[in-house]
């Protein structure tokens, strides 16, 4: 998952009426250090409820040991409810319900070396739809090394009301038989979401290096983060609290000020308020205009 290192804007909640706590669900919650989560700006700005899933025991214990109030971490393998095989790798973050595609990974710098299977074992996956605490999810983040589509297929009910999806995607088969970005895009569009942002990453083909850095990309996209938002053409169908949450998420976590303003415009139409006007005026002050 690509880190979100954008600087914060002004606290949008200061100009909004009260709204319920934002619920974040993190599938593949392994920590790379405090503040590195792709929703870190959001949890730093206002109280949120967070439910994270991490099936590797050692990584789960790290999360549970540092959990803050409102944060809950569970050990489930999230998927479509089927029986699968989990491939645990030497670098825990590359472990997956799909087997690593070693011949492809070996063509690039520092990929095969981080994706060597240490053990494989059968597991039972759980659907998010079958976990009661998942109801009312606002922001769903998914990073499960090729099994993202399985997670979405097990979250049909959640996708009916979720506002923002932040998912890792792959553009080549880094894991055998995994669904790729195009498969995920078709599925999520069918559920009423549109692609909002796409952040890409990769590696250089061996033996070339960029800036003598084995982790640097030259030309080949391999994976990325795709941010999907509830279709903006249907904002008028969303309830008022959902529009306030959506504006807050987009402003705080993604600096998508135009999307946030659009959500506030829909809220204004419903409630005969002028939040969008206030918001734009505040943006102009911050920009020094």
Helical percentage: 25-40%
Find the structural class using helix and strand composition: alpha/beta
CATH top level? Alpha Beta
Say what the CATH topology is. Rossmann fold
Order of helices and strands: EHEHEEEHEEHHEHEEHHH
Principal-axis shape equals globular
Contiguous low-pLDDT stretches (5 residues minimum) are: none
Separation, N- and C-terminal Cα atoms: 35 Å
Q: What portion of residues belong to β-strands?
A: 15-25%
**Order of strands side by side in the largest beta sheet?**
3-2-1-7-8-10-9
Number of domains in the coordinates? 1
Mean pLDDT: 95
Number of strands: 10
Largest sheet: 7 strands, mixed
The radius of gyration computed from the alpha-carbon positions, rounded to a whole number of angstroms, is 20 Å
**How many helices?**
9
CATH architecture: 3-Layer(aba) Sandwich
